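Contributing: when you submit paired examples, paste them exactly as shown. First protein:
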Amino acid sequence: MKKKVIGVTTLLLALVVVFSGCASQGAAPSSTETGTQAVASSGSEAAAQAVVSSGSAEEKGLYAPDIKDEFMVGGVSWQLSAECKALMKQAFDTATNNVDDMKKKCQDPGEPDWKYDESANAMYYQGKRVAVVADIDDTLVQASAYDAWLVARDKSHSNVAYAEFIMSDSCIPTPGSVEFVKYCLANGIEVFYVTNRADEDKDGNTPYKAFGKTVYDISIESMTKLGFPIDDQHLIVNDPVITGSSSKESARQAIANGNEAFPNGQRESNSSGTSLTAKIAPHHIAMLMGDNLNDLTDAFSGTDLNADTRAQLIEKYADKFGNEWIVLPNAMYGDSYTFFEKYGMTKLLEEHSYK
């Protein structure tokens, strides 16, 4: 009961701040980072920070007194939405059904490419271990509470603040996620957790300096506490400061083709510290899971794309959704908000005649 009260209080605080206009007067925290600077921020909120810093202070929003805070309204509503939770549960139920289909293929003489080694509890496709690759934030873990958590504590977006949120009781699993991961493992399928969470921000601040732990350590501890089976060989931290890119394509390729020393997060206080490496054997990636289409393929991240052309790509990959690709709902941030940076929500809606 105590956790529920805290959660509702956090949500109400966020709503009060947004609708009272405190944020536009400087009382509530907001990001001052630019879209470029936000690349080095925590993977789950990097795009959100770009959104926050996009609008002009004079611009009025449709749903909040200041356009910079409109995404927060979506975040608070998302936490209260039964439909959101139902969609999350539906996504993991669909993924579970896909695992059952793979199990049947392993037992079907007409599917010689699929094998299951019962003694080793290992599923194979064409001689490669079968794997599921999943994003963490807003896929396996509900990160939308982060913004309400910030408001309640009068904090601003930062890597250190996000690390603190991850360690708090406000960070909870997505409905059905823990059960799904355990089901995969019970049926011989490996699960790789691939995240863009990062340590060092533009000012050189890190969770290591604040808590004596890097975001890698914090992520392992947090995911373990939430009930996810996880270890150093299956958590892949694609830290943009280390890799130079927020794209997860190199991580996907490392899992698919193998990599003897894939750069994988860090243990010390900055990017010049000791970086981890992961020794990854080649796998057959049976499913990719994420709340951003870029978690599935770089096809949706082209600089020549806009909101309309990006949406049109859905048809091109229609056969993958629900099968090889599982998409989780997220109303708060993502690459579709690239337009949001340029136009702001109000102008974007007007342009599409939605107002």
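Second protein:
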Amino acid sequence: MQDILLINISGPDQPGITATIFDLLSRHAVNVLDIGQAVIHDTLTLGMLVEVPPDEDSSVLKDVLFACHRLGMAVRFEPIAATEYEAWVQGQGRDRYIVTILARKITARHIAAVSGIVADHGLNVDHINRLSGRISLSEQSRDQKACVELSVRGAPRDVALMRGQFLAAAVELGVDIAFQKDNAYRRNRRLVCFDMDSTLIEAEVIDELAKAAGVGDQVAAITEQAMAGELDFTQSFKRRVGLLKGLDEAVLEGIAERLPITEGAEELIRTLKALGYKTAILSGGFNYFGQYLQRKLGIDYVYANDLAIENGKVTGEVRGQVVDGQRKAELLKQLAEKENLNLQQVIAVGDGANDLPMLSLAGLGIAFRAKPMVKESAEHAISQLGLDGILYLLGVRDQDSAELLTRDSE
């Protein structure tokens, strides 16, 4: 019977280590059952589970030990019982999840809190990877990003309780924590639908229009109630639009040109396009501004409200069906069908109560810098980073994004 051996090698990273070790193992007809390698700050850790032919153990141990000594590497050997190996094999069918920590800076306390919750629910951490770029200690930026991704395995005792604990830890520690199943859909999403106001832009357009019309305070109060879920969106929307009656059409262009684009939005959209994603704006705002952002950012689809204008003046009405929360969900579903996608391949991003229907329908619904009620209701939330933090939830590293954007600009 073949012997099973766990070999762990660590030490200063240098070219040729992996090639040297496996060249030696190949001379003994060794089979590789599992392997993992990581380099952290020029220090390499290489682990492998191998099947060694009978009577070759001592030769393998000797050759690897001498090779590691020449290379200045430490090595540890551990024999694995056949029953222990078979138990490990049987565990491969267990569910896998991805836990993502996002912040401006990640500390030991953050990882301790997250890994503690994971352990409390009976999950094992298999891998930990840094997705963000290396952070300079001498040239720190206020909009720097940090992200660590944990791959975990097992069956959570109570998924709802676990999500609640992650949310509580995120609020307490000032980080974002995402928990999602690691399956084929996570790696094959193809459509991202965005809310516009306070999501793609750092403003509520109707509030800006109201200021220009001299009714800013009245409209802002109604907007706040509606986004907090205290008022029916459609009724409140019509009330706000009615207050805009008589506003000069020329004002719209100036407001559009001054719209503050949300941090990370442009990088996110460019990266998504480079990866082959389709993008859409599904907004309870106005087509005029959605189409302006479509041209500016390269969005594929825009669905919003048509603000009625006659004789160069806003009439205080909208044409057609109001794009409320339910309509956003319907449009998301229609776009998925048009692109021949499963809903699990769709991402929805929004901040208000009227975004919840589409957030719950999409495979990945993200409450972005959202109101507390929306954050509690959505499965995922990003509050600490810009919109480009969404790329981390897709497993995209900063290095990947930089390479894609460089190629796109050539």
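If you have annotations for the second protein, write them as plain sentences, like these:
The chain has a mean pLDDT of 92.
The first helix runs from residue 17 to 26.
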